[in-house]
Amino acid sequence: MSRKPVALALLTLSALSLTACKSNTVPVLGAGSTFVNPVMTRWVQEFSQSHPNVQINYQSIGSGAGVQQVKAQTVDFGASDAPLADSALASMKPVIQIPESAGPVCITYNLPGLSQPLQLSSESLSGIFLGTIKSWQDPRIVADNPGVTLPNQNIVVVHRADGSGTTNAFTTYLSAVSQDWQSKVGKGNNVSWPVGLGGKGSEGVTGQLRQAPGAIGYVELTYAQQNKLPVAKIKNQAGNFIAPTAQSTTAAINAFNDDLTKDPRTPIVNPPAHASDAYPISTLTFLIIPKDGAGKDKRAALKSFIQYIIGDGQSVAGSLNYAPLPDGVKQYDQQQLNQMTADGQPLQ
Fold this sequence. Notes:
The chain is of the alpha/beta class and 348 residues long. The chain has two domains: 26-102 and 284-346, Periplasmic binding protein-like II (D-Maltodextrin-Binding Protein, domain 2, 3-Layer(aba) Sandwich), CATH 3.40.190.10; 104-255 and 266-282, Periplasmic binding protein-like II (D-Maltodextrin-Binding Protein, domain 2). The protein is built from 15 helices and 14 strands. It has helices at residues 4-23, 37-50, 63-71, 86-89, 122-130, 139-144, 165-177, 179-184, 201-211, 221-226, 246-255, 257-262, 296-310, 313-319, 327-337; strands at residues 26-32, 54-60, 77-80, 95-109, 119-120, 156-160, 197-199, 215-220, 233-235, 241-242, 282-290, 292-293, 341-342, 345-346. The strands form three sheets. It has an eight-stranded mixed beta sheet. Helix 13 (296-310) packs antiparallel against helix 15 (327-337). The longest helix is centred in the N-terminal third of the chain and has 20 residues, at 4-23.
């Protein structure tokens, strides 16, 4: 008997098996915040190990673009460092909006020869980004750094050029500490910057910083670490210069615990003086998920992924310098997730 028919049958069976495997793969597409991209990458890797049939693709395109993709219904979920206000929610199909982690917005700089962390008060920082402080030897910066020799160099401001939740968090802080900033610039994903160079995404900001001695900008902590950029200590309301860490971000969250229980969209910038160890430029980051969507398998896979994020994924967040969510916020998240439906029907 010829072996050719047997071989052909085996090849056909193998091809059918591969096709079946591919057809059983559930694709999930997300987009948005560059701030959360380092931990999102790890979450996707970790979740995929235990859910090999779920293929999650997250595009780090900025919070503003991610929100627009959710609104246009071209992604399954978005991520933003700035929560959607009621006015924005009213202009789109119903969504679930939940915090998924928190982190510090770091002030990073390129000052060759400076051997210890730069220290900046709110007055100095707002003056730099307003363009009223132009030199690293300005008396206000010198006063923040007693005994430190600062370079005789002009300041080069670097900021985000795209719609950014990180920008929203930073400008929310500047608006809280500077009346001039509040009246002249304000807060938002996009603002009209008084001075500076723009970079697209956190990656673009770090790229600009590395190329420009004398530069200062703002990024997420992991980006600063990956690019070997130093981060400044920022003076809080207690008068302490605090480094950006997961622990100092947790202290900021705890300072607003009662407010967050009522509304998780509460900003956690510039915490009160009793939070003596809190970093003053911190932000919760959010997932934005359509309340209803097509396809039971896809929606179930998405729900499982998000439940992983707010559960076991919180320890992963802590290992990457993001602050894990407090229990009260996690409980809120789960209540919101329980409202997810597929084709108008509840998910089990």
